[in-house]
What we know:
Shape: globular
Distance between the termini: 13 Å
Strand content: 35-45%
Strand order of the largest sheet: 8-4-5-6-10-2-1-12
Low-confidence stretches: none
Structural class: mainly beta
Order of helices and strands: EHEEEEEEEEHEEEE
Largest sheet: 8 strands, antiparallel
Helix content: under 10%
Number of helices: 2
Amino acid sequence: MLAPSEGYLMDLKNSKDELFSQKTLGDGFYIKMCDDKVYSPISGVVASVFPTNHAFCIKGHNGEEIMVHIGVDTNLLNNGVIESKFKKGDEISEGDLLAEINLEEFKRLRIDAEVYVFILNDLEIDKDYRNDKSYVYDGDCILEMKG
C-alpha cells in the first residue's frame, strides 16, 4: 500500500477527528499533504465515490478494501473543491492520480490538507513501515498486506 501524497506521515491517533483517531473505520494512516494531488495507494476497482469527491472506496485486486478520505468534515464541501479523476466502477492502478484538491479553498475554509487511508476489511498487515518514516513521497511503500 503506497503513500497517496507527499507529506508528513501521521498515526491515526493524532487525528483531530475522534472517529478517525479511534480507528472506527479501521486501521490505517494519514498524511499531512504538501501538495494538491492524491494518488491511489493500491490497484483495483473504484467501488464508490462520495458525491463531494472527498472519499473513495477501492476494492483491491489482492482482496484489500480501503477508503481514501480527503480532509476532515469535507463531506460538507461544495462540488469543485475536490476534483475526482475516477468514477465508480473504474479500474485504477496504484500511483494513478485519484483526485486534486483546491488548496486555496481548503485554506479559506480552514480545512487541513490531509489524506487518510483506512483498511476496511480484516486483512492482516505483513510489513509495516509507518514507524520508519516521518516524511513520505507519493508512491513510497507504507504497508504490505498478507494475502
